Amino acid sequence: MKSKMGRAKQQMMDDEVNDDLVEFLRILSEREELKGALNGIAKQVIAKGADSMSDKQQAVVEKFVEYYKSNNECQRCVNGNVSKLTDYIEIADEGLCPMCQYDKEQQMKD
């Protein structure tokens, strides 16, 4: 049996993961990068949260997320510095994760 502190910490971690997924889907939806059923599921998740998905919807989203992650790799750290799903959007746009992009900008200043 988990302690209250353990449950609270787990809930915070779950909330962070859910918020990250919602933000990831929101950005891709705004950019009109989501098609078909995934677009409808994303709109639901954005409006009602990740917990509103059925098991079938969750499987669709998980498959898409894995596909997106596997097709977007940071040219420098090979995703070693990736901490959020939204980092993969920056990799898709820039070729680098936010941390490596920051490091590159700092090196260019020197």
Question: Can you give a write-up of this model?
Answer:
- The protein is built from 5 helices and no strands.
- With 110 residues, the chain is mainly α.
- α2 (36-48) crosses α3.
- The radius of gyration is 16 Å and the shape is globular.
- The N and C termini lie far apart (53 Å).
- The mean pLDDT is 92.
Question: Could you list some keywords that capture this structure?
Answer:
0% strand, 110 residues, mainly alpha
SSE blueprint and pairings:
Blueprint: H1 4-30, H2 36-48, H3 55-70, H4 85-94, H5 98-109
Helix pairs in contact: 1-2, 2-3
- What is the tally of helical segments? 5
What's the overall average pLDDT, rounded? 92
Helix content range:
over 70%
Tell me, briefly, the overall form.
Answer: globular
Q: State the end-to-end distance.
A: 53 Å
Low-confidence stretches: none
Which range does the strand content fall in?
Answer: under 5%
Total E-strand runs: 0
The SSE order reads HHHHH
Structural class: mainly alpha
User: How would a textbook summarize the main sheet?
Assistant: none
Gyration radius, rounded:
16 Å
Short structural description:
By secondary structure, this protein is an all-alpha fold.
